[in-house]
Amino acid sequence: MNSLIVQLPRGLQARHTALFVHKVSSFKSEVILFKDGKTASGKDIMLIMDLFIREGDEITLLVDGCDEQMAIETLQKYLLNLS
C-alpha cells in the first residue's frame, strides 16, 4: 500500500477522475483507493467521485497484479501532479 497527498489542483473532480480511471484501465493490476475508511475500485468513476478526493487529501493506493510496479509509478506521478 502506498499513501500519498494528492497534489492535483481541485483534486479528483470529474475530469481528473476520468483521466485517472483511463490510466488505471490501461493496467491489468487491480487498483483500490482508500480515503477516510472508504474504498473504491480504481476502475469505477462513480465510486471514486464518492470519495470526494480534494487537493491536499491523504489517500492510500493498493495495487495488486502483474504490472503493479508500473501502475503504482504512473498513478502516483498523476496524483502528485508530476505528469
Key terms:
3 helices, 4 strands, 25% strand, globular
Return the structural class: alpha+beta
Largest sheet: 4 strands, antiparallel
Helix-strand pattern, N to C? EHEEHEH
Low-pLDDT parts are none
The Rg value, from CA coordinates, equals 11 Å
Ends: how far apart?
Answer: 21 Å
Strand tally is: 4
Determine the mean pLDDT: 95
| Count, helices | 3
Tell me what the structure shows.
This protein is of the alpha+beta class and 83 residues long. The chain is built from three helices and four strands. The protein has a four-stranded antiparallel β-sheet. A hairpin with a 2-residue loop joins strand 2 and strand 3. The chain is globular. The protein starts with a strand and ends with a helix. The mean pLDDT is 95.
